[in-house]
């Protein structure tokens, strides 16, 4: 069935996106407001976009006027931290998604602790096994209070227990226990169910064709 976006409402287009582009990693973004109060909010329109330079992208939606607090803080201070969400921190993440008034410290509301970042002012979430310090690379205005934030990655903080070989940057990804966003109001997915499928080289593919 064809769904032509030109004839769909924004709400229905959104439904199609979030029910088909799955699973999506979750960017649990920490920033500082103009008074230095920490802000935390999760965003599932998120992924890695480039390895060199290392860049992540976050889609941030609107509030009544302008971008959400996270977007305004990034626009002003040009710094943020992406903390990844685990099964253990899922409930706390959900608390930080509440539409609190501006100036409320969502981290305190969720009972979370913070740790100092190395290169940026916003703190990282101590309970997260991965925290990615970012500097704003580009902010793309999409209109109607929506924007795509491209952040240049400055540093990774990864739980020691999940690092297999620091010299070669090998990480025990399953041990991180990360979750992803699925469709529906409360749909999430654990990343413990893996499908192993090695890539096929051109030579192996050509050899397979010759054998047939």
Keywords:
alpha+beta, globular, 212 residues, seven-stranded antiparallel β-sheet, Pnp Oxidase, Chain A, three-stranded antiparallel β-sheet, 6 helices
Describe the structure in your own words.
The chain has 212 residues and is an alpha+beta fold. The protein has one domain (5-211): Electron Transport, Fmn-binding Protein, Chain A (Pnp Oxidase, Chain A), CATH 2.30.110. Helix content is 21%, strand content 35%. It contains six helices and 14 strands. It has helices at residues 10-20, 69-77, 90-96, 106-109, 173-176, 202-211, and strands at residues 24-25, 27-32, 38-43, 46-51, 54-60, 79-83, 114-115, 124-125, 130-143, 146-158, 163-165, 170-171, 179-181, 188-190. It has a seven-stranded antiparallel β-sheet. The longest helix has 11 residues, at 10-20. The radius of gyration is 19 Å and the shape is globular. The mean pLDDT is 94.
Which overall shape is indicated by the principal axes computed on the Cα atoms? globular
Distance between the amino and carboxyl termini = 36 Å
CATH classification, class level: Mainly Beta
What is the string of SSEs from the N terminus onward? HEEEEEHEHHEEEEEEHEEH
What's the β-strand tally?
14
What is this entry, summarized?
Helices cover 21% and strands 35% of the residues.
Question: How would you summarize the topology of this molecule?
Answer:
Layout: H1 10-20, E1 24-25, E2 27-32, E3 38-43, E4 46-51, E5 54-60, H2 69-77, E6 79-83, H3 90-96, H4 106-109, E7 114-115, E8 124-125, E9 130-143, E10 146-158, E11 163-165, E12 170-171, H5 173-176, E13 179-181, E14 188-190, H6 202-211
Antiparallel strand pairs: 1-13, 2-3, 2-6, 4-5, 5-10, 6-9, 7-8, 9-10, 11-12, 13-14
